[in-house]
Amino acid sequence: MTDGTTVDVVDAQILDKQIILGIKILREHLGCSLQDALRAYTDRYEVLREQRPDDFVCGRDEYWAGFFS
To answer: What CA–CA distance (Å, rounded) separates 56 from 4?
Structure first.
């Protein structure tokens, strides 16, 4: 992700637990498969979880509850 605006948008989606929308944005921006977009999303999630843990709306377990890939 080289476009700062896209990174900001995806980061906002991740922090707001908008998983599907964040993956969709990544897929469109990167022009990649759904699997690759999911991988990019989870990689960015881990970076944000480490760098900005207080910005998340819920804990790690609750974040992924109900999401099946």
So the answer is: 20
